[in-house]
Amino acid sequence: MKRVMLTVAYDGTNYCGWQVQPNGITVQQILNEALSELTGEEIYTIGASRTDAGVHARGNVAVFDTSVRMPGDKYSYALNTRLPEDIKIQGSREVSPEFHPRFTDTVKTYEYKILNRRFPDPTRRSDTCFLYGPMDAERMNEAVLCLIGEHDFRSFRASGETNPDRSTVRTIYSAKVVREDDLIRFRICGNGFLYNMVRILAGTLVEIGRGKIDPGEMTQILERRDRSAAGPTAPAHGLTLLEIRYPEWEPDFFIRKQEQMSW
Amino acid sequence: MKRVMLTVAYDGTNYCGWQVQPNGITVQQILNEALSELTGEEIYTIGASRTDAGVHARGNVAVFDTSVRMPGDKYSYALNTRLPEDIKIQGSREVSPEFHPRFTDTVKTYEYKILNRRFPDPTRRSDTCFLYGPMDAERMNEAVLCLIGEHDFRSFRASGETNPDRSTVRTIYSAKVVREDDLIRFRICGNGFLYNMVRILAGTLVEIGRGKIDPGEMTQILERRDRSAAGPTAPAHGLTLLEIRYPEWEPDFFIRKQEQMSW
Fold it and tell me: Averaged over B202-224, what is the pLDDT?
């Protein structure tokens, strides 16, 4: 048996999220089916990030075990010919049988994209959230500075998540909001994110960008540790999981990320 | 009666092109239906550019006549609530009843996007043409220089177009190929384009980028005035009609475009 790791990109528009579930087609299900067909074994993948319905990924990570002798790096090509256009493998390789994509320290990067213009753009509708009216990206960027570092992000956790044992403390290595013409990008990188955390942050930033909340209030929202202090949850389709990296494989990358915090 | 001009953006993926036709849903048909419903009159639009199946637009132009008294600039909002997500009006205004979007001098800009990376990207699959393997955008940019100016572009006209009376001479004001990471953009601006011209140019540029044709050969291909001299027709979904402008309304813009030719 060997364990193979896949880097998976998908357009989440037509899926009920990552995780296999009884009522709807998911990315994981399509991947399990393609792998089972390819290997002739019953394959069940373990994903690093169980993205919600409508959320996209450029680099989610999944592993599976197989006794097939094909080299780990050949899976990307072999799978892509069997996968639909909206799910494509970006790389594959053999990893240690002990490697678990969720119970290993990670550095994850998410991006939330806001299309801020007068009218919707049909060619960019699936991976941006369209919002008209003035929006000040510099105010938004000012507000994210206080997120960097280790904090209790309870204010930015979906109220549906009720497990009281779970820690709500996470470390953010970098956070930035930049405008490129009519596109506002909010990019955030950290060691983990609570349920809906990036979307609640994005929803709060929209209120800040529109002048309804002062950028300086972000610190107080964070300190309140109460979901009702933050803004609304921004729609899923503006969110993309850009990258997941594992510090144990790249200690230098992890040190650089930690250094960013002190900038 | 008044004539209203619309700037129309669409994702061409799910349409059989612009022009109304018996076997398939087109952008123009959806637009005619939405306008007829809105005005209570039977509206038939006239489009500036009859884009092919799968081709996208950020700024195609259409006009229609109506006796409804709503101001011309209100149509964009009124229509967008009735249009599907993949067709959205970007602006509307009243124009002279004599204005015809196709029989008026125009400056059109098209963009062909090539996604040049190892694996396909699901979130960018609908408006880029994915091609792996090394591709040299600088060679491609060198090759487009000879297109600028007035030339007979017969070599870049689909062989299906056989009307011998139609001139195949067009003026290109600017043409450029740039790489931004894994994306190669070929942008071309001129007073008109022959049937499939931008896609045949893109297909020829791909061969140049891959080293199969020398950049200097573009001049000879142009001079041959023979479709078989050029490369293949690149797929429709990589092409976007960015903009159509009318020099009679903006003489300065037109003069600037002509000046670009001498750069």
Answer: 97
The answer to whether A78 touches A4, Cβ cutoff 8 Å, is no
Task: For residue A132, give Cα distances in angstroms to A112, A114, A135, B110.
Answer: 16, 10, 8, 26
Specify the pTM: 0.93
Which secondary structure element, helix H or strand E, spans residue A173, and what is its range? strand A169-180
Report residue B199 as tokens: 């896609």
What whole-number distance in Å separates Cα of residue A242 and Cα of residue A122?
22
Chain A and chain B share a number of CB contacts under 8 A equal to 69
Q: Decide if A156 contacts B119 (C-beta within 8 A).
A: no
Q: What is the pLDDT of residue A257?
A: 77
pLDDT of residue A262: 57
Check: CB of residue A135 under 8 Å from CB of residue A209.
Answer: yes
Q: How confident is the model at residue B111 (pLDDT cuts 50, 70, 90)?
A: very high
Q: β-strand B56-66 against B239-245: which pairing, if any?
A: parallel
Residues A76, A93: Cα–Cα separation, whole Å = 9
Q: Say whether residue B119 is in contact with chain A using an 8 A CB cutoff.
A: yes
Is A258 touching B (CB cutoff 8 A)? no
CA distance A220 to B19: 56
Following DSSP, what letter does each residue of B92-147 receive, concatenated? EEEE-TT--SSSS--EEEEEEEEE-SSS--GGGSSSSEE--S---HHHHHHHHGGG
Query: Over the Cα atoms of chain A, what is R_g?
Result: 19
> Which residues are A16's β-sheet partners?
none
A118 in Cβ contact with A132 (< 8 Å): yes
CA-to-CA distance for B114 and B179, rounded, in angstroms? 9
pLDDT in tens, A21-45: 998 999 999 999 999 999 999 999 9
Distance CA A27, CA A214 (A): 39
Q: What is the ipTM of this complex?
A: 0.89
Report the relative pairing of strands A56-66 and A239-245 from DSSP bridges: parallel
The runs of H, that is alpha helices, within chain B are: 27-39, 75-80, 137-144, 197-209, 217-224, 251-260
Q: In the predicted model, is pLDDT for residue A256 greater than 90? A: no
Dist CA B31 CA B84 (whole Å) = 10
Cβ neighbours of B221 (radius 10 Å)? 22
Name the DSSP letter for residue A156. Answer: G
Site from A123, A124, A237 to mutate, B interface, most B CB atoms within 10 angstroms: A123
To which residue do tokens 């002190």 refer?
A262
Q: What pLDDT does B257 receive?
A: 77
pLDDT score recorded for residue A17: 96
Residue B210 near chain A (CB below 8 Å): no
pLDDT tens sequence across B129-144: 999 999 999 999 999 9
| Residues B180, B186: Cα–Cα separation, whole Å | 11
Q: At what angle do helices A137-144 and A217-224 cross, to 10 degrees?
A: 40
